[in-house]
Amino acid sequence: MALVNHSTIIEFLLLGVPEDHHIQALVFVLFLVVYLLTLSGNLLIILVIRTNSHLHTPMYFFLNHLSFLDLCYSSVTVPKMLENLLSEKKAISVEDCLTQAFFVLAFGGTELCLLAVMAYDRYAAICYPLLYGQMMSNELCVGLAWGSWGLAFLDAFINTLLAWNLDFCETQVISNFICEIPSLFPLSCSNSSDNFAVLLGSALLHAFGTFILVFFSYARIVSTILSITSTSGRSKAFSTCSSHLTAVSLFYGSGFLRYLMPTSGSPWELVFSMQYSVVTPLANPLVYSLKNKEVKASLKNMLQKSLQHLR
C-alpha cells in the first residue's frame, strides 16, 4: 500500500451518521434541537449565576466555568455533524479534523479537571464548614479553574502535535461523527505506537489522577455525612452533592471507555463519543437546574421578574 504524507491528503470522510436520507433528516432535527437546548440551558445557568449575588460562591464559580465549557464543547462537535447530515459527501479537511480533535481532547480534559475541583469544593464545604472560606479562597478558586484549562490544553497540544506528524494511508474513512485522536491511529501508515503510548499515558495521568481526587473527596464526604445524627442534616448534605455526582457519572464513564478502549470501528465508540460530547453538555444544565434548590429558586425569580417587566 502506498505511503502518502498527510499534507497530500485533502480530507477525511466522517461516516458515523446513518446512510438513509430519511433517518438523516430525523437525526438532523433531533440534534439541532439538542444543540439549541444545550446553548440556551448553559447560557441560562451562566446568566443566573452572574446576576444573582447569592450564587457568587466557589461552587457556582466552578459551575459557571463548567457551563461555559459545555457551550464550547458542543459547539466544536455538533455544528459539523449537522453540516454532514445535510451534505452528500461527509467530508472534513485534514486541518479541520486535527483542529477538532485538539479541541475535543482539550475541552474533555478541562471538564475532567473541573469536575475533580468541584468534588474537592464539596469536600471542603461538608467536611470543614468552619474553614471553608479559608480553604476555598478567591485566589485558589481562580488558580484551580485556570489550572484546569491550562493543563488540559497542554495535554491536547502535545497529543495533537504528535498526530500531525503521522503519515496517513489512502483509507480516509473515520467511523464516527467527530474527529478524535484515537480515530486517526488506524488511518496511519507510519508507526503510531509512540502516539498511542503518549495518549494512553496522558489519559491515565489525567483521567485517573482526577478520578482519584473525586473518589477520595467523596469517601470523606460520605464518612462525614454518616456521622451526622439528624436526618434533615444528612439529607441536606447529600442534596448538595447529588447534582455533581450525576455529572461525574455521565462524563467519566463514557470518557474513560472511549479513550482507553482500542479503536476498532465498534458502534460503542460512536455511542461513547456522543455521550460525552453531545449528551453531557445538554444534561449538565438540566441536572444542576432540576436538582439544585438555589438554582431553581434563582430561575424562578428571574422568570417572575421577566413576566412582571412584560406586563
UniProtKB/TrEMBL annotation:
UniProt entry tagged with the keyword RNA-binding: no
TM region positions: 23-49, 61-78, 98-120, 140-158, 196-216
Major location (coarse): membrane
GO molecular function terms noted in the UniProt entry: G protein-coupled receptor activity; olfactory receptor activity
Keyword Amino-acid biosynthesis: no
Signal peptide, first to last residue: none
CDD domains (alphabetical): 7tmA_OR8S1-like
Cellular component, GO, one term: plasma membrane
Subcellular location: Cell membrane
Keywords annotated in UniProt: Cell membrane, G-protein coupled receptor, Membrane, Olfaction, Receptor, Sensory transduction, Transducer, Transmembrane, Transmembrane helix
Membrane topology qualifier: Multi-pass membrane protein
Entry function: Putative odorant or sperm cell receptor.
Protein name: Olfactory receptor
Organism of provenance: Lynx pardinus
Lineage, opening ranks: Eukaryota, Metazoa, Chordata, Craniata, Vertebrata
